[in-house]
C-alpha cells in the first residue's frame, strides 16, 4: 500500500537532501562525491514528482526559482575554488524551502 505524501513532506525531503549535499560538499567533497551525485539525482526525482498544482500561490513562484537554481547547481562543476559557494547556495535553498514548506 502506497501512502500519499503531503506537499509539505515532499518539500521537506528536498530541503533535507539539499542540506546533506551542502554539508558534504563543504566538509568532505572528495570522499562524498558519489553520495552527493546520488542524492542530487534523488532530489531531481523529488522535484519532478512535485506538481505545480500541488503548490499554493505563495510557494509556487519560490519553487519555480528554486528549480532553476537547482539545475544550475546540477550542471556546475564542483572544484576547490567554488565548493564553499556551491555548498552555501545549496544550504540557503534548504533553509528557504524548509520555511516555505509550512505554507505548502
Could you describe the 3D structure shown?
This protein has helices at residues 7-48, 60-75, 83-101. The protein has 104 residues and is mostly helical. The protein has one domain (7-101). The longest helix is centred in the N-terminal third of the chain and has 42 residues, at 7-48. The radius of gyration is 14 Å and the shape is elongated. The mean pLDDT is 93.
Q: What are its keywords?
A:
104 residues, mainly alpha, 3 helices, 74% helix
Strand content: under 5%
Q: Termini distance?
A: 25 Å
**How many domains, as an integer?**
1
Global structural class: mainly alpha
Short description:
The protein is mainly alpha-helical and 104 residues long.
Write the layout of secondary structure elements.
Blueprint: H1 7-48, H2 60-75, H3 83-101
Amino acid at each position: 500500500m502506497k501512502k500519499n505524501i503531503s506537499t509539505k513532506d515532499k518539500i521537506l525531503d528536498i530541503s533535507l537532501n539539499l542540506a546533506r549535499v551542502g554539508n558534504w560538499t563543504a566538509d568532505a567533497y572528495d570522499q562524498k562525491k558519489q553520495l552527493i551525485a546520488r542524492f542530487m539525482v534523488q532530489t531531481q526525482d523529488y522535484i519532478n514528482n512535485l506538481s505545480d498544482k500541488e503548490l499554493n500561490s505563495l510557494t509556487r513562484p519560490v519553487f519555480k526559482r528554486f528549480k532553476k537554481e537547482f539545475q544550475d547547481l546540477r550542471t556546475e562543476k564542483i572544484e576547490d575554488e567554488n565548493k564553499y559557494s556551491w555548498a552555501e547556495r545549496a544550504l540557503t535553498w534548504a533553509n528557504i524551502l524548509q520555511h516555505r514548506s509550512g505554507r505548502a
